[in-house]
Each structure stands twice: as C-alpha cells, then as structure tokens.
Amino acid sequence: MKLLVYAVRLRALARQPATWEHLRPRSPQCPGKRCWASMKAVETKSDLLSRLCVTPRIMRPDDANVAGNVHGGTILKMIEEAGAIISTRHCNSQNGERCVAALARVERTDFLSPMCIGEVAHVSAEITYTSKHSVEVQVNVMSENILTGTKKLTNKATLWYVPLSLKNVDKVLEVPPVVYSRQEQEEEGRKRYEAQKLERMETKWRNGDIVQPVLNPEPNTVSYSQSSLIHLVGPSDCTLHGFVHGGVTMKLMDEVAGIVAARHCKTNIVTASVDAINFHDKIRKGCVITISGRMTFTSNKSMEIEVLVDADPVVDNSQKRYRAASAFFTYVSLSQEGKSLPVPQLVPETEDEKKRFEEGKGRYVQMKAKRQGRAEPQP
User: Where in the numbering of this chain does the HotDog ACOT-type domain appear (predicted)?
Assistant: First the structure.
C-alpha cells in the first residue's frame, strides 16, 4: 500500500512542478526525515535533475589494460562524460543563450580500487559549487559485481567546467547560481575555487617546455622512457561543436603516461592517481596533437610522469602550435600476481631534470603527509 502511495506522488511530480518535500513519508517511523532525497526541500524536481547525474556502464574486454583490469583512461573518460552532462544541463537550466560546458581542470584523482571486466561502473556526478563563470562537479565511481551484488568505491574526482556559447565557442557565459543548504558550503566552495585558480596560473610557466628526443639513452634515465603519441583529431573525438572532448584528451594522456611507466619498469603498471589536469586551450577538429610524457620522480614504489599536450592547427596557418593541456600521473609497478614491486630509481642527468625531480619529490612528500593526516583517528 505504501508503494502505491509513493507511486501516485511520483506521478504527480511528473505532471507539475512540485517540491521534493512531497516525497516525505507520513509515518511515525521517520517523522520529519527526508528518506527519499538529501537536497533541500525547497528544491524542485528540475533543480535536482540539474544537480545530480548517474550513468551506468558495463565494462567490456576492449576496456581492459594489459594487466586485465579496466584501463585508467577509460575511467577518466567516463568521469568527464558525467561531468559534462550535468554541467551543461545546469548551465542551460535558465532562459538565455544556449551553451555547452567545456572541461577546464580536473583536480587530483585517486584510483582507490581496480575495476574488473564484467563489472558495472556507476558514475554519479553532483554540482557542488558555482562561480560566475565556472562549475565545480564532484564525481564518484562505484563498481558493481552483478553476480554477487558487491559494490565498492573505485574513484573520486573533482572537475571544473566553463560554459561556452553555441554561437561563439570563444565566449564564456555566466553560470546560473545554485542554492546551498548551508552557508559554509558556499564559503568552502569559494576557497576551492580560488585555490584551483591560483594553481592554474602557476602551471602556465611550463607552456614553453617541450620534450626533446635523445639518441641512445641510458636505462633508468628520463630520456630512456620518455614517449610521444601523435594523433589527428577527427569527428569522433569531438563534440557537436567541433572541439575535442576532455575525456578523449585524458584517455590519450593516460595511455602515454602508461607507456613511459612500462618502459621504465618493464613490468605491469597501473594508474595510482592523477594530479591536477589543466586544460589551457581548446583543441579543434583537424588539429594534430602531440601527447608527450616523461618521468619526473620515483619513490620506492611509485613514479611520477609529466604529460604535455601540444596542438598544431595544420589547416589554419593563422595559428601557431600551442600548449593545450598538462598533468602529472602517478603509477605503481605490479607483479604478475598483482602485488606491488619496487620501482627502479630514476637517474636525472641535466639540471632541468634534477630540478623537476626535486619538485616531484616535494609533491610526493606533500601528498604523503595529507594521506597520513586523513588516516589519523579524530580525537
């Protein structure tokens, strides 16, 4: 009988704008609780749909890496697709000029647990903050074994999008504001926005840096494992508006980083985490992109790889080659049984390589301290 009552109420919501407060069960077992929704009661169904997005997908053999697990780049692409859907939906939730949300930055993403072929990936996205011209999206990835029903969290990521006008993709539009249930949420979001904005500015100094090939490099050096991939951007890589999906770029970046890690270790390798990915400029259809990766730092059991993406608009003589994206990937070496192996230590040769090594060591120590801080029990 209760299910029938809920079904009638849901049907009423589909016919008219109603608040999610109407879904509150009228029973003494949970008085005053929102058992069906955690959003504010004043938000309508359309508000919730513009802020929440869940997409399932079964993992197939062509999604596998060499080790047999789901390719890290495939997961990054799914994360970006979910973020693009929800941010584009939100940015078009009010009357005005139509737009599409473009990926500007991905915060550090940790691969918490491997995902296997045959499992179902549940990618959930939620808008957590909006500034005047950007949207912050929190994405979680759960894997489900549909034979046993077991579920586990595999990935968490934070992405930033900007709305670009459909009439002129170089024009950034304003973002509709969201309603926060607590004032602290908006203040915390503003701090995250300012922090990522500062970090994006700091990465631009590397834009002139390029990866140069070296003849007959010695093993365990930067030159020995550095790798590049050249890709012609086609229609299947792009949105309907002619520029590359952020997820496509991230997958290519992960592939190159994986090649660098495998060449250095000569073992099975897996993505452990991705530091902030910054998208400096759009990549249009017809461009030739060069994705270059090089080892920057190694600890006992992990290695950091810097990946740079350069775009060359070969059909447009008016524009020169430019830096489109950059990021740091962290990989670990695994045995055939899936156990962690020691990583051969990197031998930096030039002054620039030694400088990048020390910078990578600083990032490693800083992140290790953060993880240990989170692991300490609260008093």
Answer: 49-167, 223-337
* pTM flag (> 0.85): no
What are the C-alpha distances in Å from 374 to residues 160, 191, 271?
A: 24, 19, 21
Pairing between β-strand 151-165 and β-strand 109-111 as defined by DSSP bridges: antiparallel
Q: Tell me the sheet residues that pair with 106.
A: 159, 277
Which string of DSSP letters, residue by residue, matches 259-319?
HHHHHHH-SEEEEEEE--EEE-S--BTT-EEEEEEEEEEE-SS-EEEEEEEEEE-TT-TTS
For 160, residues 6+ apart whose C-beta sits below 8 A from its C-beta are 103, 104, 105, 106, 107, 134, 135, 136, 137, 196
Tens-place pLDDT, residues 326-376:
999 999 998 888 789 999 999 999 999 999 999 999 999 988 887 776 655
Q: Name residue, tokens 């879904």.
A: 23
Domains of the chain: 45-198 (3.10.129.10), 215-371 (3.10.129.10)
Instruction: Please name the residue that has the structure tokens 């602290």.
Output: 184
Q: Is 369 exposed, middle or buried (0-12, 13-18, 19+ CB in 10 A)?
A: exposed
- For the annotated catalytic residues, the residue numbers are 65, 254
Tell me: the pLDDT tens digits for 38-55? 333 334 444 544 557 788
Q: Which residues contact 366 (CB under 8 A, 6 or more apart)?
A: none
Question: 3-class DSSP state for residue 157?
Answer: strand
CA angle 151, 157, 162 (to 5 degrees): 135
Q: For residue 169, give Cα distances in angstroms to 5, 16, 134, 243, 350.
A: 47, 35, 15, 9, 41
**363, 368, 370, 376: CA torsion to nearest 10:** -170
